[in-house]
Amino acid sequence: MNKKLAAALSGGAVLVLVLSGCSSDDEGDKVNDWAKTFCDQAQPQIQKRANANQLIISTAADSKPETIKAADSKAFQDIADADRALAKAVESAGAPPVDNGEKIQQDAIKELNATAVAYDGLKKQVDALDTTNQQKFADGLKVVSDNLAKIQNMDQDAVAKLQAGELGQAMAKQPGCQTPKASLPPSASPKAGAPETGTKTPAAKPSASAKSE
């Protein structure tokens, strides 16, 4: 398969929930307490998303269509499930004790659930791909990557407001909101040259002239 398609698929599969660095300012006990409550609940879901992203990276570059289809389907389902759980974590933590905290909370819940529905849609598209014809599969995978590119913005917007100002600085201090290393069995180890999940990976744009190799 075209490696550009693999890059497009892997590029948008990580939801970054942390800021680089942290502030030394005292953000207040209530804000820090909220951040800890949320991040402790969010950590397993952030890990789940990291694993899903790494699964795509480690299998999509040169695997058989059946393998790519299975990996992407599982990854998209895991991301959808993780987003729903993250929405519940935001709801459970309550409105953050900052200006417009209730609106920030409700917006994050709404957007995370919407992103989960979008990833459900991607899974259905992947499940419907024809693996018996290499060219048809490549064409179908390009459509999936194009749709993924649209979802990437939704993914980041879902938590952008949580990351703003003192609330984002408080979250950045919490171990639970740190970007984890992906955990996959040895048989699914990354291909040579694949980016590590623990770093922020820029979203790759799908190639308009993608072809099967």
The helix-strand sequence is HHHHHH
Please identify the oligomeric state.
Answer: single chain
- The DSSP helix count reads 6
Task: Please state the average pLDDT score.
Answer: 76
Distance between the termini: 5 Å
The level of helicity is 55-70%
Largest sheet: none
Rounded radius of gyration (Å): 18 Å
Regions with pLDDT < 50 over 5+ consecutive residues? Answer: 8-16, 18-25, 186-213
Global geometry: elongated
Strand content: under 5%
Number of strands: 0
Describe the structure using short key phrases.
213 residues, mainly alpha, 6 helices, 62% helix, elongated, disordered C terminus
Walk me through what this model shows.
With 213 residues, the chain is an all-alpha fold. The chain has 6 helices and no strands. Helix 4 packs antiparallel against helix 5. The longest helix has 32 residues. The C terminus is likely disordered.
Task: Give a quick precis of the structure.
This protein is mainly α.
Question: How is the topology of this model organized?
Answer:
Elements: H1 3-11, H2 29-60, H3 65-93, H4 101-127, H5 134-160, H6 165-172
